[in-house]
Amino acid sequence: MYLVVTHGLTMRLLARRALGWSVALFEALSNPACCEDRILTSGPSGWTLDRPFEQWRPASDASGQIPTTR
């Protein structure tokens, strides 16, 4: 288990890398608020996020935060 204390942009970058989000989706997401947390969990089927980031506009490639397959 790891605990990473970081800023919102870095939190989104880590989630993007782990979950395989597109750049278009990454740019459409908002940073979390101050002291807001996210739990990124590794399991047999890959990484999962406890709840989505707020999305302020649709991604230009129509991708979503929850991967359909990995």
- Low-pLDDT sequence parts: none
Average residue-wise pLDDT? 89
Task: Please list the strands of the largest sheet in the order they lie side by side.
Answer: 1-2
Number of domains: 1
Given the C-alpha coordinates, what overall shape results? globular
The topology string of helices and strands comes to HHEE
Tell me the Rg in angstroms: 12 Å
Strand-pairing-aware structural class: alpha+beta
Strand content: 5-15%
Q: How far is the first residue's CA from the last residue's CA?
A: 22 Å
Number of distinct beta strands: 2
Characterization of the model:
The protein contains two helices and two strands, in the order ααββ. With 70 residues, the chain is an alpha+beta fold. It has one domain.
What attributes does this structure have?
70 residues; two-stranded antiparallel sheet; 26% helix; alpha+beta; 2 helices
Briefly summarize what is shown:
The protein is an alpha+beta fold. 26% of the residues lie in helices and 11% in strands.
Topology, please?
Layout: H1 8-19, H2 23-28, E1 40-43, E2 46-49
Antiparallel strand pairs: 1-2
